[in-house]
Prior knowledge:
single chain; alpha/beta; Rossmann fold; 4-stranded mixed β-sheet; two-stranded parallel sheet; 7 helices; globular; Spermidine synthase; transferase; SAM-dependent_MTases_sf; Spermi_synthase; spermidine synthase activity
Amino acid sequence: MVDIDGQVIELSKKYFPEISKAILEKDPKLTVKVGDGIAFMREAENYYDVIIVDCSDPVGPGEGLFSYDFYKDTFKALKEDGLFVQQTESPFMHRKLVKDIFDCVSDIFPITRLYTAFIPLYPSGMHCFTMGSKKYDPLAWEPNRKRTFPTKYYNEGIQKSAFVLPNFVKDLLYGEKER
């Protein structure tokens, strides 16, 4: 995990211990770095299985996390079957940005999908996430093993339904040809 602000990590451990469990328990699968995520991705190559980018809005210092070069760097940083996902704003409020990001990622990754989630605390409630994959298509996904841990929200139906897009989002990404 890379965050540009070490205080965010410390406050997360203090106020959100349940979701900071891997940091608090020093999980060996997690390495925490304080620094610039853009520079970090620029240096990485063929190393990660998954890259999840949860960043601020695409203004100021966060703007580079929404750039073509950053997406190329994430592709390079992933192993041959790796995948990348990034929160990519509201399709109601940021139509052009959602489309531009989807097109950038589509230009770089062989498989690109957009999924949605409803987050009541965010403006408009509906939020997009763009996924680029080198090998695996979530639309072709079938569970091949039993889940070995409990989840509060997630289940196989949620997995599949997240990728079912409303018509206005399909039109935004693909035009009417996909309807």
